Each structure stands twice: as C-alpha cells, then as structure tokens.
Amino acid sequence: MVITSIADTVLRQIENVQDTVNETLFEPVVRIGVTGLARSGKTVFITSLIANLLDRGRMPHLVAAAEGRIEAAFLQPQPDDTVPRFDFETHLAQLTAREPAWPDSTRAISELRLSLRVQRAGLLAGLQGPRTIHVDIVDYPGEWLLDLALLDKDYATWSAEVLTRIKDRAEASAFKALVASTDPAAALEEPAAKALAAAFTNYLHAARQAGFYDCTPGRFLLPGDLAGSPVLTFAPLPTDGKAPRKSLLREMTRRYEAYKHQVVRPFFRDHFARIDRQVVLVDALGAIHKGPRAVEDMRGAMTDILGAFRPGQNAFLTQLFQGKRVEKILFAATKADHLHHRQHGRLTAIMEALVRGAVDRARFAGAETSAMAIASLRATVEDTVSHEGQTLDVVRGTLLDSGKQAAFYPGALPEDPSHLLTPARNGAKSWLEDDYRVMNFAPSPLTLRPGDGPPHIRLDKAAQFLLGDRL
Ligand SMILES: Nc1nc2c(ncn2[C@@H]2O[C@H](COP(=O)(O)OP(=O)(O)OP(=O)(O)O)[C@@H](O)[C@H]2O)c(=O)[nH]1
Ligand SMILES: [Mg+2]
Questions:
Q1: Which of 28, 254, 364, 462 has the most CB atoms within 10 Å of its CB?
Q2: Which residue is closest in CA terms to ligand 1's atom 14?
Q3: Collapsing DSSP states into helix, strand and coil, what is residue 466?
C-alpha cells in the first residue's frame, strides 16, 4: 500500500515535470481569443468549432484535416486555473438535443483547451513522429474591449462625455432626472450612490436594446461576480462644482478610478495581452435589420474594439505587449445561414467595408486580417421560389417563436456596401431602397454521421485562417 502510493507520488511528480517540459519545449500553444458584442454568436461559434475539430468530416478546407494529418483531437484541462471552463458539453448537448435549443447568454470570460496530434507535412513527415499542438480558446465579451478607452480618461472627462452623449436620448430620461435632483457635493450616502448606479445601468441596458453600442463601462452590462460591488456602484455626474471630502462626487471619482485599476487593467493584463490570434464576430445582418443608426453605431463600436489591437496607440497596452502582437484577426459576419449563398459575397463585402479603416491600421501594426461570412450552426436550407412572377432565393427553417416551418427572404443586400454605410454615416433614419428583415430560426434537429460535426458555413475556412499555418 505505502510503497505503491509513494511510487504513485513519484510517478506523478515525474509526469508533472514532463508535462511542463513537454509543453515548454516541444508542444506549441496557440491562444485564440473569440469576442464580439452581446448575442453576436460567440458561444455557438466556439461550440461548433470545437465539435467540428473533434469530428472533422465537414472540414474540407482545413488543409491538415483534408490531408488526413490530424491523428487525434482531444479536450484537456485548460492551463488557467482561475478562469471558468467553457461549458462545451452542455452547449453542444443543447444544440444537438432531440429538441435543439440555442445556448443561454454567457456573461463572462471562459476558456477551453483542445489538443491536436498532427502528423508533420512535407519532407520530414516520414522521419519525425506526430506532434501535439494545444489550442486554447478564450471567450470574452467585446464590451470589455470598449473599456480600454476609459484608461486614458479621468472621471471629469468621462462624465462630461457621457452626459453630453445622453442629452437627447429618451432611454436616459429617468437617469437624467435623477442627476438633476442630485447634489454632487452632498455627503455620500450609499443608497443615493446605489440609486444613481442602478438608474445608469438601466439606461445602458435600454440603450443597448435600442441598438446603441457606446455602452461603457462594459461591466455594468455584464457584471459577472462583481455585481453590487463598489467598483460598479458609480455613475457620471456634473463635475463643475465643488467636491468636498466625503462628498458623493469624491467617492464617485474614486470608484471610477478603482474600476479602471481593478477591473479594466487586470483583464487586459491577464487575458488580452496573451492572445495570439483573434476572432471578432459581428451580427451584421441583425444591425442592418435594425436600421442605419444601428449600422453606424456598430461601425463605431468596431473601430473602438479594434483600437485595442494597435498597442502603439495606448501607453498601457504598449507596455503590456512589449513587442508581442496579435498575429491574425478574423472578422466574421455570423448567422450567414439567414441568407442564400448567392448573397454571401455581398455580406462579406459589407463586413470588409465596416472594418476597413480599422483593418488598414491593424495591417500596419503587423497583423494579418481576413473577413468572412459564416454560420457556426446552419439552421436553414436553401430554396428558390417564384413570387409574383419573380424567382426569389430564400432559406427555409423552423421559426423560433412558433415552431412553424417557413421560407424566408431577407431582402437584397446591395452589391456596393456604401449604399448601406453612407446613409448610415449621414444619419439616415431608415433605408431608402429596401427593407431588411431577420427571423429567428431554431436550430434544426440533427442526425450526424459518425465522424461529422454539426453543419456550418465556412467554419473550416475560418479554422484554416486561424490555425492552418501551425498544423
Ligand atoms: N441561424 C443562426 N443563428 C445563430 C447562429 N449563431 C448564433 N445564432 C443566433 O444568435 C444567438 C446568440 O448566439 P450566442 O452564441 O449565444 O451569442 P453570444 O455572443 O455568445 O451571446 P452572449 O453570450 O449573450 O454575449 C443564438 O441564440 C442564435 O439565435 C448561426 O450560426 N445560425
Ligand atoms: Mg455567449
């Protein structure tokens, strides 16, 4: 008994040492960040990507898979002990259940490690054995990247900006009324601070619902385990008056600074700065459906998000990255299964145009970029129907609300993306030429052949762009 347990311990220690040695010397790690604004499709993307890397029957454009060089793929404990594990099994079980359902909203960062045993390509293939590559996939809300802009702003500047921005926004009326009846110089009383923070948070939620993306601080919308803590109990106030000691204004200023130091900075330091490759998911169709203002707002949010990928712009990030950089960035318009494939090129063009300015700068900073239209989990089939003497390219699927089968035509996207982006930029209230609809489809019940992952559109191309050169 004793001897075996000692031997066990020794063996385990040797294994541990080997693990570390293996990892550092021979087994490369690629860290892929997956981000996007709320409901952009992050959870479904990661779930389907992993399922399709485990069962690679539908991954013909992932070259190593097509060449049969991936000998095995398996999930492993992730290397970061304090980050929640991405709940792959639960999400996949939901998506592939007999009555499939979309996963619940996820509110924080999570991570998963997938390891691939890969046969080498080329001349050395026969001489050397297979090697193992670890792929760490990190899911985090895009809203957290928007907070980067706060680091360079003090409380007075931030407050002034926010109060100007919300002047004409109906969503903020309750918060504005509360601010008007608040004396910032009064002594701090916690219920008053709480009421202000709650009203401000309500405004942020309403603004987000209405299609505004300029909704920082990001954790107000996605508080995770910080909900109710002082770092999230502040709000913008007019700062032109006096701020005596122990006043509401003093404390709001202090909490704003604490938010920057204890929430924003640690995220960038512990997670963002370690990412090698990044996927930015965008629900472009959803924004087009909401109208010109949502499109313009999304463009703004994308530009802000992508600012984080140019560390040179920000002293704090430059110091964090220390010359390291994100090597590749993929911009993916999700839910492309809402469109017949004849329109996918147009969606990609819109995606490219949306992020063009930011992409040019990312290229300048050394990252390779690509834009694609994808569907992580295909919920529709394509069809062509005749309607009032015209033929229409439609998609068919099960409607999420009613459970009924329906054919759906979302409208024709313009060939030239500027037909959408220019009116959006010029503040148009609605689209002139066409109306765009979206429908919520339920995931279809699946019968998967052994070796096949869930059906998708271009997930293999996305994987090839992100990983292909390392396999
Ligand atoms: N038709 C279709 N719908 C999709 C697809 N991917 C996502 N969706 C829809 O988009 C919704 C949001 O997807 P999620 O993956 O949960 O998005 P998320 O970015 O993780 O959302 P949060 O966790 O709330 O930030 C889903 O509930 C689906 O309705 C897809 O490939 N096809
Ligand atoms: Mg999610």
A1: 462
A2: 41
A3: helix
Cis check: omega of the bond before 217, within 30 degrees of 0: yes
Contact 238, 171 (CB under 8 A): no
Whether the CB of 47 sits within 6 Å of ligand 1: no
With the CA atoms of 255, 259, 260 and 263 taken in that order, what torsion angle do they form, in degrees rounded to the nearest 10?
160
> Does the beta carbon of 441 sit less than 6 angstroms from any atom of ligand 1?
yes
Q: Whose CA is nearest to atom 27 of ligand 1?
A: 102
- Amino acid in the structure at residue 33: G
Residue 35: is its pLDDT beyond 90?
yes
Q: Which atom, in ligand 1's list, is nearest to the CA of 46?
A: 15
Give the 3-state secondary structure of residue 1.
coil
- Inform me whether the pLDDT recorded for 412 exceeds 70: yes
Give pTM, 2 decimals. Answer: 0.89
Instruction: State how far the Cα of 245 lies from the Cα of 381, in Å rounded to an integer.
Output: 65
Buried b (16+ CB within 10 A) or exposed e, 239-266: beeebeeebbbbbbbebbeebbeebbbe
Pocket test for ligand 1, best of 42, 44, 380 (most atoms within 8 A of CB): 44
Q: Cβ(39) to ligand 1 under 6 A?
A: yes
Start-end of H helices in 291-445: 292-307, 315-321, 344-354, 356-364, 418-425
Rounded Cα gap, residues 444 and 101, in angstroms: 9
Give the residue among 328, 357, 374 at the shortest CA–CA distance from 468: 328
Task: Write out pLDDT tens, residues 259-314.
Answer: 999 999 999 988 888 999 999 999 999 989 888 988 988 888 888 888 787 766 67
